[in-house]
Amino acid sequence: MAAGGRAAPSFGTDGTAYALVEGFGHTVTPLSPALVQLKSDPARVRGLRGIRMDAEVIVLRGERELFRTRGDVLFTDSGVSGDAVFRASSYAQRGDTLVLDLLPDVERSLLEEALAKGTGEDSLLCVVPNGLGRTLWRMAGGDRTRAAGLIKRFSLPVTGNEGFARAQVTRGGIPLAETDENLESKLRRGLFFAGEILNVDGECGGYNLQWAFTSAYLAAEGVRSC
Ligand SMILES: Cc1cc2nc3c(=O)[nH]c(=O)nc-3n(C[C@H](O)[C@H](O)[C@H](O)COP(=O)(O)OP(=O)(O)OC[C@H]3O[C@@H](n4cnc5c(N)ncnc54)[C@H](O)[C@@H]3O)c2cc1C
Question: Distance, CA 4 to ligand 1 centroid (Å)?
Answer without folding.
Answer: 5
